[in-house]
Design goal:
- The chain has about 475 residues and is an alpha+beta fold.
- It is about 10% helix and about 25% strand.
- The chain is elongated and about 90 Å long.
- The chain binds zinc ion.
- Zinc ion (ZN) binds next to helix 3.
Length: about 475
C-alpha cells in the first residue's frame, strides 16, 4: 500500500532522505554541509563540513509507519516493558526481517541504502559517565511502566538500546548521526525493537553525557510509539540539552516536527502530539505502590572478607512484585539478578581487586521502590596453609597438596630470608622450593584451574615421595 510521506521526511532545510523511508536531519559537523545543500543521495555520502553551524541532534529514525510491521497496538498497556541498556557492544544482522532484540536481527530500514549488512557495534567509550547515563535514562522513564536494566534479560520480549559506535556500522558516514531506531511498529510499540545510540558522535557535543542520555531516551521513545515534536524541552525534539532549559517527556501538546520553527505534519494522526501522553497511553504509568522490598543478605558474611571471585547471595521479596537485585562495587554496577530461585538471588562477582571496597546491594520492585544495603568488604587471597582448589585463590599463587590435602602456599628461597614463618618450612618439591607444613612434605600443583590441579595431584604423589627436605634457616 502507498504510505503517505510525512512532510518531515521531505525537503527539510537541514535534512533530506538518505534512502527510502529514512528521514535525517543535519547535525554537528554535518550541519553546515547539509544546510549548504550538499545533501547527497544519502547521509552516507553527505559532505562533512567543519563549518560553524551549531550542532543539532541527528536522528535517523524513519517517521513512516511501515506496511510490513504488525499494526500498532493502541493503548496496549500490557505487562511492564523492559529496556535493556547495552554498553558492551554487539553484532546485529541487518536484513529484511522484523526486528528482534532477542536474536539481534534488525530490519534493514535502519541501514544506509536499506542494504542488508552485519553491523558490529563496539562498546561505549570509557570516557562517558555510564552510571550517570543509566540514572538519567531511568529518570526519564521513571513515571512510566517500564524497567530499565543493564543486564540482558534471559527471555524476551525486551527493547534494546545499544550504545556505541558512530553510525558507520550501519553504513552512514561517521560523526553525523546521534542515533536511529528500528521502530518497525512506528506509531505503536516495537516490542522487540532495537535503538542504536552512537556514543562516538557525542564525544565532542556539549554536555555529552546528558546529551547521550537524551539520545537514548529519544530513540527508545521511537520504539514506544513516539514521533518527533518541536517542543524544545521535550526529549523528542532535536534541540540539544545544552540549548534547552530542561529535557523530559513533557505532558504538553506540541506540533510535530523536529525543532521550533520546523513544524511538520504528524505521522501518527492528529495535528499535534504529546510524548508523555502517548507513553501513558501505550505503556501505562508505573504502579503507585510505595512499599519497598525486603532484603536480607546471606553473603558476604558480616566479617566482610571475600576473595576476588565471590558470590552475593540475598533473599528479597516485595508485596507486589520484585524486579531485580543489583550489586554495586565502589559505586559501579557490577551485577544483577532478575531470575531468582524462589526468593533467592545470587550475583557472582569476578575479578575484584585486592583491598578494601564498598559493596551496595539494591533490591528493586516493579514500581521502582528500592531497598539498599551497604557494607565494607575486604578482598584478599587465602593465607599459606588455607585449603584451596587452585592457585588463583592463594596469596602465594600456589595450591599445593600433601597427605593432608590441598593448601595454599608460595615459593621460597631455602638460602634466603624466612618467608614461610610459623609452622612452615622451605622445602624442595619437584623443581621449585615452597613453604610447606613442617614434617608434612609437599607436592606442588601450581596451576590456577581445576584441570591443572587434577594433573598436579598426580604429579604431586610422585613429588612427595621424592622430596628433599631442606632445613629452614
Ligand atoms: Zn528521532
Amino acid at each position: 500500500m502507498a504510505v503517505p510521506r510525512p512532510a518531515d521526511a521531505g525537503a527539510d532545510s537541514v535534512g533530506g532522505m538518505t534512502s527510502p523511508g529514512i528521514a535525517v536531519a543535519a547535525a554537528t559537523t554535518l550541519a553546515a554541509g547539509l544546510a549548504a545543500g550538499l545533501v547527497g543521495p544519502g547521509l552516507a555520502s553527505a559532505q562533512v563540513s567543519t563549518g560553524a553551524a551549531p550542532p543539532q541532534r541527528v536522528c535517523g529514525t524513519s517517521q513512516i509507519p511501515r506496511s510490513f510491521a504488525p499494526p500498532p497496538t493502541f493503548f496496549a498497556a500490557g505487562p511492564q516493558r523492559v529496556i535493556y541498556l547495552n554498553r558492551h557492544g554487539a553484532t546485529f544482522e541487518i536484513m529484511g526481517s522484523t526486528t528482534d532484540a532477542t536474536t539481534n536481527v534488525v530490519h534493514r530500514d535502519v541501514s544506509a541504502g536499506r542494504q542488508s549488512r552485519t553491523a558490529v557495534i563496539p562498546p561505549i567509550e570509557s570516557s562517558f559517565d555510564w552510571d550517570g547515563i543509566v540514572t538519567c535514562v531511568t529518570e526519564h522513564f521513571r513515571r512510566f511502566d517500564v524497567r530499565v536494566v543493564e543486564g540482558e534479560p534471559e527471555a524476551g520480549p525486551y527493547i534494546e538500546a545499544i550504545v556505541g559506535g558512530d553510525g558507520t556500522e550501519l553504513g552512514y558516514s561517521g560523526g553525523g548521526l546521534f542515533g536511529i531506531a528500528a521502530a518497525d511498529n512506528f506509531c505503536g510499540i516495537t516490542e522487540r525493537g532495537v535503538a542504536f545510540n552512537f556514543s562516538t558522535t557525542h564525544l565532542n557535543v556539549p554536555q555529552r553525557n546528558a546529551e547521550l542520555c537524551a539520545t537514548i531516551a529519544h530513540e527508545v521513545g521511537h520504539l514506544l510509539a513516539l514521533e518527533h515534536e518541536v517542543l524544545a524541552t521535550d526529549v523528542m525534539s532535536y534541540v540539544l540539552v545544552a540549548d534547552s532549559s530542561s529535557k523530559a517527556f513533557v505532558d504538553q501538546a506540541s506540533a510535530c516536527g523536529t525543532s521550533p520553527g520546523q513544524e511538520r505534519s504528524c505521522s501518527c494522526g492528529g495535528s499535534t502530539t504529546n510524548s508523555a501522553g502517548r507513553l501513558t497511553s501505550y505503556v501505562g504509568l508505573k504502579s503507585t505502590e510505595t512499599v519497598a522490598p525486603s532484603l536480607t543478605v546471606h553473603a558476604p558474611g558480616s566479617d566482610g572478607r571475600v576473595e576476588p571471585w565471590f558470590r552475593v547471595t540475598v533473599t528479597a521479596t516485595d508485596d507486589e512484585g520484585l524486579a531485580d537485585v543489583l550489586v554495586y562495587l565502589d559505586g559501579q554496577a557490577v551485577g544483577v539478578d532478575a531470575t531468582p530461585d524462589g526468593d533467592r538471588y545470587e550475583i557472582v562477582i569476578e575479578g575484584a581487586a585486592i583491598g578494601g571496597h564498598h559493596l551496595a546491594i539494591v533490591a528493586r520492585d516493579l514500581a521502582g521502590n528500592l531497598t539498599r544495603t551497604e557494607m565494607d568488604i575486604t578482598v584478599s587471597l587465602r593465607d599459606n596453609g588455607a585449603g584451596c582448589e587452585s592457585g588463583a585463590q592463594c596469596a602465594g599463587g600456589i595450591c599445593a597438596t600433601n597427605a593432608d590435602g590441598n593448601f595454599c602456599t608460595q615459593t621460597c628461597d631455602p638460602a634466603g630470608d624466612d618467608v614461610c614463618g610459623g609452622d612452615f618450612e622451605c622445602i624442595r618439591a619437584g623443581d621449585i622450593d615452597v613453604c610447606a607444613p613442617v614434617g608434612g612434605g609437599c607436592g606442588c600443583a601450581a596451576g590456577a584451574s581445576r584441570e591443572n590441579l587434577a594433573g598436579g595431584l598426580l604429579l604431586a604423589l610422585a613429588v612427595v615421595l621424592g622430596v628433599r627436605r631442606r632445613r629452614r634457616r
